[in-house]
Amino acid sequence: MSKTEKVAGKTKETLGKAREKSSGFRKEFIEFINRGSVVDLAVGVAVGGAFTAIVNSLVNDIIMPIVGLIAGGVDFTNLAIRIPNFFGTGDEAVIAYGNFIQNVIQFLIIAWVIFMIVKAMNRINRKRDEKKATKA
Questions:
Q1: Weakest-pLDDT range from 25-34, 61-70, 85-94
Q2: Which CATH number is 35-135 given?
């Protein structure tokens, strides 16, 4: 057997092993994707993105203007502390604490809605479990 034939044989053998590993990886990946929990997660992320847009609109367009009126006409998005640059180069630093207040309110609304959903789901599951217990 010539040196070229030996190299060709080893190359063929190496490619065969690589295909087997690739096939196993592909199969494992397909099994992972087809699990219900991955699909559920993808749906949850999509719904969460849409929900975030709704909450942002609720806070920015409805709640914060009302809070601003109650607070004496303050627009929270414009609340900031400006720190001048004492070194003479570049712009001043801006600490936009109004945006922080707005984000805290958004977080509290999202947390409250999620709490209410979990509470409702727990109530439904508890009733279902009670029905199963009485039938058994």
A1: 25-34
A2: 1.10.1200.120
